[in-house]
Design goal:
Blueprint: H1 9-20, H2 23-54, H3 56-96, H4 99-103, H5 110-148, H6 156-183, H7 187-215, H8 223-244, H9 249-254
Helix pairs in contact: 1-5, 2-3, 2-5, 3-5, 3-6, 3-7, 5-6, 6-7, 6-8
Length: about 260
């Protein structure tokens, strides 16, 4: 990392970091963190509490899989949602208002620009995602014991997906979307596609969770599913690296609207 951020890479990284660290970053982080904690820690209490006296086994099952439901989609979705908010300034607006075209007249390589942008976003979004994961699991463990008398069983497979594989997959997808903003003629259209893509992941994830819960009376997560997530991440990562070879200054300048 240190080698990658040597001049001019470090100067580019700091510039992109300053551009991304806007009011939208802080507001989105506060809003998303609060919403995720409320929906994944406090909302389930009432639903589970009704089962504690009537069906203790069902209550224990719900507490066990709720953390798995969170890990299955929320870290991925939260990472991409914040990425979408920040990429408007870092990737899209810079191309639309001509700042990218001016930057391309310098000796800086286009791939260095792309790397600095995605690393700046990673350095801002990853800590928020990991902190959110830790807060949700910690509060579930503490508050549910006090309110319900039941401790959620947070398994290693859940932690691996939430803290490692899901953020890695999200970073790979975000890097690909950022790369495409260089390669397409109209980045504003791509931003609309990004918006639809991110929210489609959220809706599809909720549908997947509902399907898994209705069809299974056991754990939702398995190492096989984690491996599937990792496989998708590696595929996207390799595809992005192949596409990055098309990062040619003349090509990008000729496709700036």
């Amino acid at each position: 990392m240190k080698k990658d951020l040597d001049k001019p890479g470090r100067a580019l990284f700091l510039k992109e970091l300053g551009n991304a660290k806007s009011a939208a970053y802080w507001l989105s982080c506060i809003f998303i963190t609060g919403t995720m904690i409320w929906t994944n820690v406090f909302v389930p209490i009432e639903n589970i509490q009704t089962l504690v006296s009537t069906s203790p086994e069902a209550a224990a099952y719900m507490t066990r899989i709720w953390s798995q439901e969170f890990a299955l989609i929320q870290p991925l979705w939260v990472f991409l949602l914040i990425w979408m908010f920040l990429s408007s300034e870092v990737f899209v607006n810079e191309k639309i208002d001509g700042r990218l075209e001016m930057l391309l007249t310098t000796p800086i390589k286009l791939k260095e620009i792309w790397n600095s942008k995605r690393k700046a976003l990673l350095s801002l979004i990853l800590p928020v995602t990991l902190l959110l994961n830790a807060l949700v699991f910690l509060l579930q463990n503490k508050i549910w014991i006090m309110k319900l008398g039941i401790s959620p069983v947070i398994q290693p497979v859940t932690l691996t997906l939430a803290f490692l594989i899901a953020p890695f997959l999200a970073y790979c997808l975000g890097s690909l979307l950022g790369l495409l903003s260089f390669l397409v003629s109209n980045p504003a259209v791509l931003q609309s596609v990004n918006f639809i893509f991110v929210f489609a992941i959220g809706f599809a994830g909720n549908y997947l969770i509902s399907s898994l819960v209705s069809e299974s009376g056991t754990d939702l997560l398995s190492w096989r599913l984690v491996g599937f997530y990792a496989g998708i991440a590696l595929f996207v990562c390799i595809s992005t690296q192949v596409l990055s070879k098309k990062l040619d200054k003349d090509y990008v300048i000729s496709h700036i609207s």
